[in-house]
Amino acid sequence: MALPHEIVLKNKEVNQVDLSAVSGDLGILADHVPTIEQLKPGVIDVMADSGSEKYFVSGGFAIMNPNSVLNINAIEAFKLEDIDAQAVASNLAESQRLLSNAKDEITKEAAAIEIELYEALQSALSTKSK
Q: Is residue 101's pLDDT more than 90?
């Protein structure tokens, strides 16, 4: 998994990767059909023999290659356990306030994007123990 400023995971052997794509949620195993998926804000669950690691990504692309190598390129990714639920709730409330007070379309669209992201974060945090 690569971000513009760092490599989060490299050459890690895993059993399965679950991710949220624009086309729907996917569970990817070895020998999965090659595909390119646009990621939506959500959780990427990386499952290996040693356990599961969950990351929240704001978007990006997942590319499943014919050789069973999965490349994930994301704009941002954070371990789910490192995200502060209170900060998410506070920022969501502020984005909703900005949307309700917006006077122009650009401000409305920016607030709507923030709301989508914070709602996805809240949803991910509410299921992180599952």
A: yes
